[in-house]
TrEMBL record, chain A:
Lineage top rank: taxon: Eukaryota
Region (Disordered), start-end ranges: 125-150
A UniProt-annotated Pfam family: MPP6
Any GO BP annotation: maturation of 5.8S rRNA
Protein name: M-phase phosphoprotein 6
Length: 150, 280
């Protein structure tokens, strides 16, 4: 039995597109664009956008200025804003880390124990205290109720 | 700056009246242009043959369009496919920095009356406080509105300390001929960046808009020389207002007089005045 030819509009519907693979989709899209592009009319005028602002015409400095230390905050701002305009500022130096990685790892190791102690029951807290010479051991597994076998 | 231009203007006017053909924008750069002149963009000079009527037909083919995106700045308007000059002054052009073609054309004109433009940083005076907004006089046709939440760190409980009569340095977010201008004192990230209430004391005075742009140019010698005199602080508003402050009232007044007068002084006169000041 030969394949029934489905109409173009049916093929464009969303539920029919789901089964297609990406290549066929791209092809269909390309065809659609060509059809639309050919039908579009346009004015053959140059693209002229109108902007009222002087800001993009001339490179102007930042409007607040301070000289010879009269207002230190404004002087800092001046450097910041004028550098931003010239797009010079690029943070090359890597951020100084407050705490080194090793210290972080050590801190976390003991942290697990201290937080665990908070949530442990009184019975389990005993096992924590036994091992308080530095290394932390997790409390033994919780004993569950065992159903008696017949 | 203006006197030699007058002679140029007469010559130019005579020429353009005689010819009455649109000139190419490229040939008129840095020359005086008058309102009503039409300028051709570079890409159209070839198409403009003898007796070019200025009629451009509509085309249906999606052929390769070699369009360069040109921005027309203040003082120019689009008229068909040409630029129409609406203010008198010198025509300027800036090449595009990062390749998104065309560049900017604008007219460097002089005026005292400010028209609010979006993105401009201005100095305003608070004239009224009504409910949640302040009315700020910026020198335009109507006072701009400034919401009390448009300050850094302002919340409904934590209101900014702004009184009637304070000076505000802010920028416009809405400024067109159909709506009331609105300004804010924060940038798009929510930081103040120097905007907000300008401190007490100091002196506010008005100058022409062209002078502000001249003083804010990156290579302005006047500002560099002024900065060497004594410790001072200046705020420039694009609406023609300048606020200055120095340690004593006399120094502040001297500074204000210099800035007002430097518009009409030649370089030599200015250097003379600065050297006399440096001595005293």
């Amino acid at each position: 039995m030969g394949k029934t030819k489905l109409s173009k509009n049916l093929m464009r519907m969303k539920f029919m597109q789901r089964g297609l693979d990406s290549e066929t989709k791209k092809q269909l899209e390309g065809e659609e664009k060509k059809i639309i592009g050919e039908e579009h009319w346009y004015l053959d005028l140059p693209a002229l956008t109108k902007r009222q602002s002087f800001l993009l015409c001339e490179d102007l400095l930042y409007g607040r200025m301070s000289f010879r230390g009269f207002n230190p905050e404004v002087e800092k701002l001046m450097l910041q804003m004028n550098a931003k305009n010239k797009a010079e500022v690029f943070e090359d130096k890597t951020e100084e880390v407050d705490v080194s990685d090793e210290e972080m790892a050590r801190r976390y190791e003991t942290l697990v124990g201290t937080i665990g102690k908070k949530f442990a029951k009184k019975r389990d807290r005993v096992s924590y205290e036994e091992h308080e010479n530095g290394d932390v051991k997790l409390p033994k597994e919780k004993e569950m109720f065992l159903k008696p076998r017949d | 700056m203006l006197a030699p231009a007058m002679a140029e203007v007469v010559a130019v006017a005579a020429e353009s009246l005689a010819g009455s053909r649109a000139r190419a924008a490229r040939t008129v750069l840095n020359q005086v242009v008058l309102p009503g002149e039409e300028l051709l963009l570079p890409e159209q000079e070839d198409a403009e043959g003898p007796g070019g009527g200025g009629e451009r037909p509509l085309r249906l083919n999606a052929g390769a369009r070699s369009r360069v995106r040109v921005v027309c700045g203040p003082g120019l308007r689009r008229c068909g496919d040409r630029l129409l000059v609406t203010k008198c002054g010198r025509l300027r052009h800036k090449e595009p920095g990062s390749g998104s073609g065309g560049g900017v054309y604008w007219v460097d004109s002089q005026q005292k009356r400010y028209v609010p433009v979006k993105g401009d940083h201005v100095i305003g005076i608070v004239t009224a406080k009504s409910g949640d907004i302040f009315k700020v006089d910026v020198g335009g046709s109507e006072p701009a509105s400034l919401s009390y939440l448009a300050f850094e760190g302002a919340t409904k409980r934590n209101r900014p300390n702004v009184q009637v009569g304070d000076l505000i340095y802010g920028q416009f977010v809405v400024a067109n001929k159909d709506m009331e201008p609105e300004m804010v004192c924060i940038d798009s990230c929510g930081r103040a960046n120097g905007m907000g209430v300008i401190g007490h004391d100091g002196l506010l005075f008005k100058v022409t808009l062209g002078l502000i742009r001249k003083l804010l140019a990156p290579d302005c010698e006047i500002i560099q020389e002024v900065g060497k005199l004594y410790p001072l602080e200046i705020v420039f508003g694009m609406n023609g207002r300048i606020w200055v402050k120095a340690k004593t009232i006399q120094q502040t007044l001297i500074l204000a007089n210099i800035l007002e007068a430097c518009e009409h002084m030649t370089t030599d006169q200015r250097k003379q005045i600065f050297s006399r000041l440096a001595e005293s």
